[in-house]
């Protein structure tokens, strides 16, 4: 086997949390010399999960792109960054700088996972001790490829370390169908070998692998398998130590979320950063400019909901109050959203008189850096309420009109009626019962819209259910978006710089 050119894959990535493939090599190290014990395999696994906390993944560039491409998040009209405007207007170009940075970050995560899987072969250990460790690498690889294949379709698929730079630069694309097959295989392995529970839900347990299998099958329209996976988790709720958090607000409270039973897999920002590694940007991007309410110095008012999100969301739904901030504090004065740009009281004159996203600011903890960039937020990648809604959606496609499917939705809605005051007088959202298959399908997508508002899922739902013509039309939350073309906008463009470096990745996705 060829020697690794860089120690970076195991040391620089895993310990320092960053890498640069253009750096001078710091030494030569044969994998059989490094991978001498399972703790070295864990080092590579740690590298994969550490990279997930970099700004170029879900903290900033990818999450921002997914948010702006959806129908629930608008770009502050005074923000002119081309990469952001393109996503918001559905006019993404192949040289979009967001894609240009999060594409390689995804492959760095995948690379670290591949190093762990390959390196484990050099360690003489029983499968019972080795496989639970590399199962985390299989999950990480599947998790990232699942994002990539939904965004780009056919992509390069690497399942082993790249030791030959020239060969790596000439790799071809793998069809989306084959990528999904490989994702499913990775998740199946992870489900078999991961433990029932983990000390931290920033590391996957069996429930995480199973939940993502359910989600993958839902995306593929294999509703029988989606339901089977989700139902298996529900039946093992006690074994997996899962449940719905009684108070929806506590899901976004940094002081309470670690003890919650609802998260299945999270990205856990701990309030510290090494530059852009470990830094939580959502508080800054979604926070109200100059707002003194949370002691962050205010956010940047970049990712802001359209006013229609606020006006169409029933105020009796407790999730609305949790998800949106409608007041800010300027110079000691509390004002409502219609005054956010009132410079006379300290507001920021930027055309953003609208409620802002509260999930990443209200109870995110103390931030060591300005604008909340080092809060203790947990980004909820998968939580138990989603498993319930996957089961309901899939069952409706298999056997419409069941009390079982109604019951899963009603568990989620019961929590949505329970405000912080525990009031039993709340009646909205009402329990569902007796809906036709079509009406249930419409309802469940609306339910997901509100339950997971601003949690980076909406664009994926729009794409998998072909909702673009509806949600980007004149009656959509952001009004008509004339750039929307179904044949183009359900995939993003492959990064132009990658196509220049490797023409084997051609053709470009349709419409770009």
Write the layout of secondary structure elements.
Elements: H1 12-16, H2 31-34, H3 38-51, H4 55-59, H5 61-69, E1 74-75, H6 82-88, H7 97-119, H8 127-152, H9 165-168, H10 176-193, H11 206-220, H12 223-235, E2 263-268, H13 282-286, E3 303-304, H14 307-312, H15 318-323, E4 324-325, E5 327-330, E6 333-336, E7 356-357, E8 378-383, H16 384-398, H17 403-417, H18 437-451, H19 458-464, H20 468-471, H21 486-489, H22 496-501
Antiparallel strand pairs: 1-3, 2-8, 4-7, 5-6
Helix pairs in contact: 3-7, 3-8, 7-8, 8-10, 10-11, 11-12, 11-16, 12-16, 16-17, 16-18
Family: Belongs to the SusD family.
Subcellular location: Cell outer membrane
Domain SusD-like N-terminal: 66-218
Overview features:
single chain, 512 residues, mainly alpha, Serine Threonine Protein Phosphatase 5, Tetratricopeptide repeat, two-stranded antiparallel ribbon, 8 strands, TPR-like_helical_dom_sf, SusD_RagB_dom, SusD-like_N, membrane
How would you portray this structure in words?
It is found in: Cell outer membrane. Belongs to the SusD family. Keywords: Cell outer membrane, Membrane, Signal. With 512 residues, the protein is mainly α. It is built from 22 helices and eight strands. The strands form four sheets. Strands 1-3 form a two-stranded antiparallel sheet. Strands 2-8 form a two-stranded antiparallel sheet. A hairpin with a 2-residue loop joins strand 5 and strand 6. It is globular and about 65 Å long. The two termini are 40 Å apart. The relative contact order is 0.12.
